[in-house]
Structure formats: structure tokens, C-alpha cells
Amino acid sequence: MTDASQQAAATPQSEPGDKIAVAIRSRLTFNLDVDVVVVGGGLAGLTVARETARMGATVAVLEARHIGWNASGHHLGGVMPGFGTSITDLIARVGIEDARELWNLSKEGANYVRAASREDLIPGITLREGALEVSNVDSGDQLVGRLQMLNEDFQTEVEGWQADRVREELGTRRYFHGVYYPGAFQIDPRKYARGLADLARREGVRIFEDTPVISIDPSGIRKRVMTPSARLRASHIVLAGNVHLGTPLPRLADTLVPVWRHAAVTEPLGSRLLELMPFRGVVSDTDGIDQFRVFDGDRLMWSSPETAWDLKPARFTAAIQRRIATVLPKLGKVAIADTWSGVFGQTVHGMPQIGQLRPGLWVASGFGRQGLNTTAMGGLVVARGMLWGDDRWKLFSPFELVWAGGSSGRVVTQAILSWSRAMAAGAGALARYREGVRLKERQREIRLANANRQVRARVAQRQNAGPGRNPPPSEPVRSPPPGATDGNAA
Ligand SMILES: Cc1cc2nc3c(=O)[nH]c(=O)nc-3n(C[C@H](O)[C@H](O)[C@H](O)COP(=O)(O)OP(=O)(O)OC[C@H]3O[C@@H](n4cnc5c(N)ncnc54)[C@H](O)[C@@H]3O)c2cc1C
Q1: Ligand 1 site, residue 78, Cβ cutoff 6 A
Q2: Higher pLDDT pick, 428 / 16
């Protein structure tokens, strides 16, 4: 088909509430033979496509709707090393050596996003440095071990921040200590997916939107892919459809639990936001409940509630407002400019699905709520595995495709989401209560120590005055007013 006929298949792109839509998208209406077909034009699919094209393959991306309509265009733009599961769980599962290799791959993914996020490559991407992971509870003892592990065993530059510093930088007493990642960064979430698609096109990738894949036949050397109005043949198929994959391989889609995460951006808050919260990086808590950052100068971008069901984003406006007021009480109730949602696929073990299902049939999916570095890494690993025979994708083999429980799994997930939020809120409240009790005890100790000092001073005065001499009238014993400290109380 010619460019002219491709233009004829182009449709204007607009979706209600979608602020990142672009003007034109082209649908596939003709049969095509390529080396690689990528199913899904999210960050995972676009990275595989861009990388395989750079290695010299002919590549087509088939996207059911349009680039970035889901999670890939509606995230918060925070890019960190690691996965959606903790390092300790990773070590327990695969041992320290493989955990280290996996972690290095996750760093490579973050580096990939950084390299692509240059203003000359993606104008307006606005890369800002730094990310802070804060703790809801006071587990400062574990902090030292975690810093050592990240710095020494996993060669990741991190700084431990005491509670006082975290609270000063964020303008809230909500959190305790934090781990600061100077090498982490944030990008404009509205720009990355479209920018990556443009970079892939520059390498020769052909991207077709409004083109759902309805079935695949992965047998034989040349595999077949069916869309409503065209048939493709390719040597490799990459399934990068996240939770929407559907009919081409329903059993694969069943290994993911869909989790909708809801987010909002406030109206401009002016200087009060910047005075309250000097920190400019992205902030997330260790329980994965809240994630936020200053955006567009003086707005706050916030993602928090999660549900196992697709509900209208507007329903979460009030919930996010309440969440902001709870975490940043000095800010009070803020006006919300926009609310949105995206769904990501959560695996049972928390690790992405990366690898070869059968010769020539690859998967890059299940990236969870930490998908920016991991989709990039997944794209690189699959592209290299496919065309260079690099077998590092096998590092993901211990994380099998486990059935996620279908609709009953979603009920359980909703219960777990509600339960884990309640547990985290309860643990946070208890930690802050304990901190309050410790502070009061410390104040009591200070008052007692002062009283004892004064008593000892009076006794000494009396002794110095000697027998028969009248001591000068002494000061009455006074306690410091409640709330006063010696400056050392935590
Ligand atoms: C509110 C929110 C905030 C987030 N914040 C962050 C963050 O700050 N940092 C971070 O690292 N991660 C974050 N994430 C997670 C991250 O956005 C996702 O993990 C990542 O975008 C997933 O990318 P993907 O390509 O796997 O999936 P998707 O974006 O869902 O893309 C998959 C695409 O495949 C297409 N598709 C599916 N089936 C077919 C088919 N049969 N035929 C054709 N096309 C098909 C779909 O239409 C879709 O466009 C956030 C997520 C949300 C929702």
C-alpha cells in the first residue's frame, strides 16, 4: 500500500479526557511481511520495536487503540532502579548473584530512559534529578542495612535521610526516614510514550494504531498475525499487550491481575507549595501507597488509590484531595485540575513477564507500578534475545507464568489492596503515636533531670553556707513548660 492509501486509513485521534492525543493515526488495512511484529504500542512494545529496528530488522507495531492511551501515557514519570518486588524477596527467590544481575538490568532500563529523554530527542521531556523513597514507620535500624546492601552489594548510589531531613524537605511529619536516589529522575509523563514512538519511527518502525490483533498462529518459521482488515507474516512476534492482550492468547492475559491506579494534578498552588515542600524529585512511600511530585512549576501531581475494577477517574477526585490533605496537612484542601487512571498488569510474584514462550514467540508484559525502567529493560532484553541470541532473558525464567485467579483473583486483589492500605495507614498511625509517646517521655526525663539539678544545687549551696550560717533564699524548683526540649528529642 502506498503512503496515500495509508493516509486514507488515517483517523483523527481524540478520546474524551485524553489530553495527550495527537492529530492523526494510521490503521493497517493491507497485508504485510516483516521480521518482527509487536503486539501493543505501550512503552514495552515501543522499546522492543525501536531496538529491533536499530539492529536492522523490519518491524511493525500493532496498537488496538492509540499510543499512550493507557498506563504508558498516564504514569507519574518517576524512573528508579529495581522492580515491583523488594530486593530481599528477589534474593530469596533467585539468590544473590542472579538478584544482582537482575538489578543491574533494571538499572540499564533506567539508563535507557535517561538516554532517550534528551530535549533534542523528545522536546519538552523536562528531565529532573532525584527520587526519595520514604518510610511510613520508624524502622531506622533497617535503614543502615538497606543502604549498605544497595551501595555495596548492588552498586547503587543512595543516601540515607533521617526523619528530620525528610520532614523538612517534604513539609510533613507523616514520614520517618528516607532513601534518596540521586541517580533516579523524573520526566514529563505526557511526552515519553509519543516521543518514544517518534524515535522508533525514525529507526524505520511502522506503527499502526486502531489495529487490534485478534489472533496469532505462532507455528512454523513464518508466523501469522490477524487483524480485522489485514494479515501479517513475521519471523518473531512480541506480545506486549499488558492486560488488554485478550483473544490472541487469553491464557497469557489470565496470568495478570489488572490494577487501576488513579492520579490527579492540582491547579497551580503558587509559592505556598514551594515554601512548604522544597524537595523537587519524585516521592514514593515504601508501601507503594502514595507517589507525588511537584509538576509544571507549582502544581502537585499525585497518584494514590488503586482498585481491581475500572471506575471513572472523576470518582477519585475527592479521595485524592483527602489524601493530599492527610499527607500534607499544611497545604489543606487543594483544587484538582484533572484526574485520570491507567491499568497495569500485576503478576503474582511481582516480577515482569519477559522471555520466549516458544521459538519466535516472545512476551514483554506485567510491569506493574514500576514500569518505566522495567519496560525499557524488557524491551532491550527481548530485542537482544531475539536478534543477537543474548540469553539474559532466562534470568526471568524462575518467575513463571502463574494463573492470577481470574475474576475471583480480582476480588482477592481488591481485598488485598484495601487491606494493605489499611495496614500501612494503621502501621503509620501507630509509629507516629509511638513517636509522640517517646517525645513526651523524653520531655518528662528532661524536666526530672532539671529538677534534680536544682535540688543538688540547693543542697550544695546549703553545705557551702556551713552550720549556723543562713543560706541566701534559693529559687523554687521549676519544670520547663510542656513541649520544651533540650533540642535532642526526635
Ligand atoms: C497512575 C499511574 C502512575 C504510574 N507511575 C509510574 C511511575 O511514576 N514510574 C513507573 O516506573 N511506572 C509507573 N506506572 C506504571 C507504568 O506506567 C506501566 O507499568 C507501564 O506503562 C506499562 O507499559 P506497557 O507497555 O506494558 O502497557 P500499556 O501501557 O498498557 O500498553 C500496552 C498496549 O498494548 C495494546 N494492546 C493490548 N492488546 C492488544 C491487541 N490484542 N492488539 C493490539 N494492541 C493491543 C493496548 O491497547 C496498550 O496500548 C504508573 C502507572 C499508572 C497507571
Answers
A1: yes
A2: 428
